[in-house]
Request: fold
Amino acid sequence: MTIQQHIYNQDPDQITANTQLIAVNGDQGTLRIAVKENLMRASGGGEPRDRGMVSLAANDNWPVRDVVKMDGLTWMVLDQPSTVPQVGDPLTIRIDGDHRERRRRLHTAVHLCLRSIYCQFAEVEVGLAEIDESAESAVIMASVDRDVVDPDIWEVDRRLRSYVLDNRAVEPVKAKSVEAAEEEYGDLLRISDRYAFKGRIRLIHIDGLDLNPCSGLHHRSSNIGPYSLRRMLAESKQIKLRLELRACWTYWYGD
Reply:
């Protein structure tokens, strides 16, 4: 079986790839294709999938309807084309670069916001951290040790702004285990009770600030740009926030 390479892990800035088919199947008017050098990331970990197009031949462009993981491969789901491609055929993948960049910025913003929440409350249990399908905003919800008041939100936002302006490097790192990461990084490590980890793990390290197990794509630094942070209705001892990438009263960010 041909090993599939996931380009987005090595170079998340790449938006076009020329590759070849390694597997084809489909039913009821849809076609699933897997390629050797895969550019499309499936949804997962609160991050929506990539969007884009596949060119199976000259002037034959097909929008990617979905990206799924199945049988050890990542598959792109297309409407059934008039001519079904064959294994070994060349093709070109083009992703929506703007959509991916927004996702990366939001994903890093979510990590920064959660770190700020952890600094504000003695006990935090994350219940939701999810980017919407359009990659325009993200919702973060957590249970905390006490009732949340407006000054808490102001302080979370103030701290988040300082993280953005610090322009800290963001990069993936690997550890042999959670225990090994704890030993190397100490209090920087932040782990949600929603997931169980065993063996080697991939983590996102925000330089000197935060470390969290994550398989998603991220902005290259903590400077995710201007944003707005709004409090949402939540139950007692819960904090729920909506984070949007938009210029909104950004005196603190500058030009």
The first strand starts at residue 5 and ends at 6. The two ends are 52 Å apart (CA to CA). The chain has two domains: 15-95, 100-244. The first helix runs from residue 7 to 10.
